[in-house]
Write a structure and sequence with these properties.
366 residues; alpha+beta; Gyrase A, domain 2; Elongation Factor Tu (Ef-tu), domain 3; six-stranded mixed β-sheet; six-stranded antiparallel barrel; 19% helix
């Protein structure tokens, strides 16, 4: 059994008495005040998330760009420097090994942000692929870096105090190497909430000071900390997939409704399989809204009349919409059915199929 792990920020916020959970061996807060308060607060003001459990893998070298372009389904060559790219990594059959963010500093230097549960698996896969490329240096810095997400309509206002320029100068899904007061950080206009927001990446030794500087101005900006519970509700409202729920090696990007990340005109692992699968998709990830006061949960079956047509991959109660929502995989023949039944504890409840996302404010304010 893997030993418990704590982020460098845990010692800072433990006195706030967060409700903790073991998340893939990481001891992380589910909530500080309540999931409801933290979810609503993110949409209305600004919240602070410790996401230091995420993995950071730097890939450098004269063939780094070619290597990563072969590793991922998306395109990294025809994008500018300091752009962030969302992309799956697929196996030869087109199944999703992980969904990651690629930070492009230049054609010789990249940062991969990977899911905490997949760090070792991703590294094994990356090192396997590396054998076909010369002059590649792979550095797993996951234990040396921390990450904070600042999300919500006031996120730029609070960061302006500490940065040399307005964070809103960053376009969506771009990043910069900059200073947070005297600390070197990577600042990206990204997030996992469907709100305007930013993510800060920095070395572990800076973590306590950065958190405390933000904490000192919390009253001025109504800043509160938030945990995994709010993060999950927010990402479902935004229609964002979660590895292990919506994504796995048994699901390909077209089924996951992220086919826009697949560039079939270039060579990458899984390309041949995905070309064949593109027009043979039988199930699609979509949204569902409950019409009754029951919360759909993972693996709940979905029916149209008496025919089973799919299953719930994630479900929650949306405090911002005041209704139960979820993501589901539905047989593509029934996507236009609208009225469906969700089986919960041997009983059937009414729902509707709807498009994703439920909420998306990511570009508000500029």
């Amino acid at each position: 059994m893997e030993s418990e792990k704590y982020t460098p920020l845990y010692e800072i916020y433990k006195d706030l008495h967060p409700h903790l959970v073991n998340f893939h061996s990481w001891i992380l807060p589910v909530y500080f005040s309540s999931i409801k308060e933290e979810t609503i607060h993110t949409r209305k003001k600004v919240t602070l998330f410790d996401i230091s459990h995420m993995g950071e893998i730097f890939i450098e070298g004269e063939n780094a760009e070619k290597f990563i372009n072969y590793l991922i389904t998306n395109d990294i060559i025809n994008i500018p420097e300091f752009k962030v790219v969302y992309t799956p990594i697929c196996n030869e059959k087109g199944g999703i090994i992980d969904d990651i963010l690629v930070y492009k500093f230049n054609k010789n230097r990249f940062l991969l942000i990977v899911n905490a549960s997949n760090i070792e698996k991703d590294l094994k896969w990356i090192n396997r692929i590396k054998e076909s490329f010369a002059n590649i240096n792979i550095k797993n810095e996951s234990n040396n870096y921390s990450m904070i997400a600042i999300q919500g309509p006031l996120s730029d206002k609070i960061l302006e105090i500490f940065l040399p320029a307005s964070p809103m100068e960053l376009k969506y899904y771009t990043f910069a190497e900059t200073l947070f007061d005297e600390f070197n950080i990577i600042l990206s206009r990204t997030g996992y909430t469907g709100e305007k927001g930013f993510e800060l990446i920095f070395k572990n030794e800076f973590a306590p000071a950065i958190w405390e500087k933000l904490w000192k101005v919390r009253d001025e900006f109504s800043l509160i900390p938030a945990g995994l519970g709010a993060r999950d509700v927010l990402r479902i409202e935004a229609g964002y997939p979660l590895y292990g729920n919506e994504l796995s090696e048994d699901i390909n990007p077209f089924e996951a409704n992220i086919g826009w990340t697949v560039k079939l005109n270039k060579e990458f692992i899984g390309n041949n399989s995905l070309k064949k699968l593109k027009d043979k998709i039988k199930k699609i990830r979509t949204g569902i809204i409950m019409e009754e006061k029951r919360i759909p949960r993972e693996k709940n079956e979905i029916y149209y009349n008496e025919t089973k047509i799919g299953y719930i991959s994630s479900g929650t109660f949306s405090f911002n919409l005041n209704k139960s929502i979820g993501m589901a995989y539905i047989d593509d023949k029934y996507l236009d059915s609208k009225d469906i039944l969700i089986k919960i504890h041997k009983k059937f409840y009414n729902g509707k199929i709807t498009k994703l996302p439920f909420i998306n404010n990511i570009k508000s304010g500029g």
